[in-house]
């Protein structure tokens, strides 16, 4: 019986020893192990073995990015206006041993440094700069935290200024000013739109008149050009007609010459025609002296100047 009890006790002690020896660490966590009160090693994610009683896990750190809300801080600006600012800090443990032994509570340390830095920064800025300078405030706080937390094994990922609230009376005055500015901007925009409308209408009227004048000018030019071309074509037609008549006369003369009809023959033929004329009711026929001389050489004039038919 006593042997059985001893066996059970030994079994229980073995189970307890194994339970104390095995440590399972979740992903993105790490444990700080001390051996006899001195830092020994870090427990990584997975199964780890410890020596019971001798090894002790001091603390577990979460390696994921953590956020720390800084309580709303009432600070005074350079122009003596109290404003309330809410900030939030995103940080991450990058050296678990330093985060354990460098500072007792790094989260509280980050908050305190943020509060002190915030008062220093806002004390150098006026209200308008504070309201519009969130990015600058965040950057300055982060630089101050980086310098301090580097020795703590903590990295500051981001600093965000959530809200900046001025006093109620100043907020009301700012709202009125903003409303007045918006009304002024709306009136300016309306006036600018009316001005642009008038300018565009005037430009349109100007362009319309210019296009109409250019159209009239183009029409007159085309009309004058058409008249000029018509006159040129008419003159060219007349010239060609005269040339054709001259060419015909030239051809006729050349044909007469080719047929042997010289000036004497033509004169004789002319006087034959005059004889026919003289047979008419007219009792007087006047002849040029040169024609008479010509006809006298051919003897035809004797026939023409019979008594009672011709004189001179």
TrEMBL record:
Gene3D superfamilies: Band 7 domain. Pfam families: Band_7. SMART domains: PHB. It comes from the Bacteria. Residues 20-178 form the Band domain. One of its GO terms (cellular component) is side of membrane. Belongs to the band 7/mec-2 family. This is SPFH/Band 7/PHB domain protein. It comes from Cohnella candidum.
């Amino acid at each position: 019986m006593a042997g059985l009890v001893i066996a059970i006790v030994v079994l229980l002690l073995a189970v307890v020893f194994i339970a104390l020896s095995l440590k399972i660490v979740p992903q993105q966590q790490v444990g700080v192990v001390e051996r006899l009160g001195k830092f020994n090693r870090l427990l990584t994610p997975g199964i780890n073995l410890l020596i019971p009683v001798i090894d002790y896990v001091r603390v577990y750190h979460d390696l994921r990015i953590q956020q720390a809300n800084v309580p709303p801080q009432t600070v005074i600006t350079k122009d003596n206006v109290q404003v309330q600012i809410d900030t939030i800090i995103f940080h991450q443990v990058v050296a678990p041993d330093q985060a354990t032994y460098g500072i007792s509570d790094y989260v509280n340390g980050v908050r305190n440094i943020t509060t002190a830095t915030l008062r220093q920064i806002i004390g150098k800025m006026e209200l308008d700069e504070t309201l519009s300078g969130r990015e600058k405030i965040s950057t300055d706080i982060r630089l101050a935290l980086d310098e301090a937390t580097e020795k703590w094994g903590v990295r500051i990922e981001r600093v965000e200024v959530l809200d900046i609230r001025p006093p109620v009376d100043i907020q009301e005055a700012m709202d009125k000013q903003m409303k007045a500015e918006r009304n002024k901007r709306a009136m300016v925009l309306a006036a600018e739109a009316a001005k642009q409308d008038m300018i565009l209408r005037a430009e349109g009227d100007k362009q319309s008149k210019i296009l109409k004048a250019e159209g009239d000018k183009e029409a007159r030019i085309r009309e004058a050009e058409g008249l000029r071309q018509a006159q040129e074509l008419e003159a060219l037609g007349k010239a060609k007609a005269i040339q054709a008549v001259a060419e015909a006369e030239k051809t006729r003369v050349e044909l007469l010459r080719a047929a042997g009809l010289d000036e004497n023959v033509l004169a004789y033929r002319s006087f034959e025609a005059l004889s026919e004329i003289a047979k008419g009711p007219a009792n007087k026929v006047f002849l040029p002296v040169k024609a008479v001389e010509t006809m006298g050489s051919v003897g035809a004039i004797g026939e023409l100047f019979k008594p009672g038919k011709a004189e001179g």
